[in-house]
Structures are given as C-alpha cells and as structure tokens.
Write a structure and sequence with these properties.
Elements lengths: L9 H7 L4 H21 L9 H18 L3 H28 L11 H22 L1 H4 L4 H15 L4 H9 L8
Helix pairs in contact: 2-4, 2-5, 2-7, 3-4, 3-5, 4-8
The structure holds prephenic acid.
The site of prephenic acid has 13 residues, from helix 3, helix 4 and helix 5.
C-alpha cells in the first residue's frame, strides 16, 4: 500500500459511506425513547397502542412533507415503520420487565409533558434529514448505504439485541424506487 494510505478507522469508514447516518441516528434515538415511553405506560392502564396519537403523527408528517416538497405517502411510510419499530421495542421491554421484576423502571416519566415532546423533536429533525437525503435515497446504492449507516448507529449507541431488532424494523421504507 502507498505510504499515504489512510487506515480504515471507524471515522474513515463512516466518511466513505456518508449521507444516511443522519437518518439512522435519528432512528436509533427514537428507539431509545421507546424505553421512556414503555416506562411511562408500564403498570398503568394506558396500552402500548394509541391509534389516535399514531393518526396525529402520520397526518402531521404527511402535511409537513408536502411543505418540504417530499412525497407524503413515502414519508408516511417511513414514520409508520418508526412507530411499528417503537412498539416492537416497547413489547420487548414489557416482556423483559414481566420476567425480571428487578429490571423494571424505578421512575415513571410523564408521557405527555416529557416523552412525546422528545419524540416530536425527532420528528422535525427526521423530516429535515429525509429532505436532505432525498437524492441519496433514490439511488441503487441506498440499501447498502442504509445498512452500513444502521450498523454504525447501532454500534455507536451500543444498542442491545432488542433495539437492533427495532432498528431493522425501522428501515424498509427509507430507500425509494
Ligand atoms: O406516544 C405513545 O404513546 C407511544 O407509544 C409512541 C408511539 C410512537 O412510536 O410514536 C408508538 C405507539 C403508539 O401507538 C403511539 C405512538
């Protein structure tokens, strides 16, 4: 190898696969918030599924997609996957907490005042990231790039198996065409 060869450090590898990291980072952050959502609901009579809230999110992102010049159906599909991924993680946490009471959360975050506003901030950032990656997401290389970016995000956030499953569930609608 030439003397100027750059070693394949993680940073170097990430810079060779630019672009979709913004999207997968936000996916990972949203999935980590599933822990707080689940902690807010576990042991209460509030079910994991809240179809009214889901409808609000999906209607909101469809309207904002139009304003950003994005395809509202494509954007809705991405967010539907984020919600499904979030529920997958929440269900996994419930099962874990049922089986291992000592792992149950010791605090109950406020869903409406704390957790949903955090999810809403990710929604706004994700819409921007989808706008900025529109061209990249239409390319044939999108799938491989997306899987590489997701792997780095999983590694960077030290996601456990359950959250990696969630991250995989979050991916299918990202690449268009
Ligand atoms: O806000 C909630 O109650 C959540 O559980 C989070 C979330 C989401 O991913 O945005 C997931 C499941 C619910 O059906 C609604 C929304």
């Amino acid at each position: 190898a030439p003397a100027t060869a750059v070693p394949p450090t993680p940073a170097r590898a990430a810079s060779l696969a630019p672009g979709l990291g913004s999207v997968t980072e936000l996916f990972a952050e949203r999935l980590l918030l599933a822990d707080k959502v689940a902690a807010a609901k576990y042991g209460t009579d509030k079910p994991i599924d809240d179809p009214v809230r889901e409808r609000q999110i999906l209607d909101d992102v469809a309207a904002r997609a139009v304003g950003l010049g994005l395809n509202p159906d494509a954007v809705t599909a991405v967010f539907r996957d984020q919600i499904e991924a979030n529920k997958l993680v929440q269900r996994g946490l419930y099962a874990r907490w049922d089986a291992h009471p000592e792992e149950r959360p010791t605090e109950r975050p406020d869903l409406v005042k704390e957790v949903r506003p955090a999810l809403d901030r990710i929604t706004t950032a994700l819409l921007t990231a989808l706008r900025e990656t529109e061209g990249l997401r239409a390319r044939p290389s999108c799938g491989p790039r997306l899987r590489m970016a997701a792997a780095w995000s999983a590694y960077g956030h030290r996601l456990d198996t359950l959250h990696v499953e969630g991250l995989v569930r979050a991916l299918p609608s990202v690449c268009e065409g």
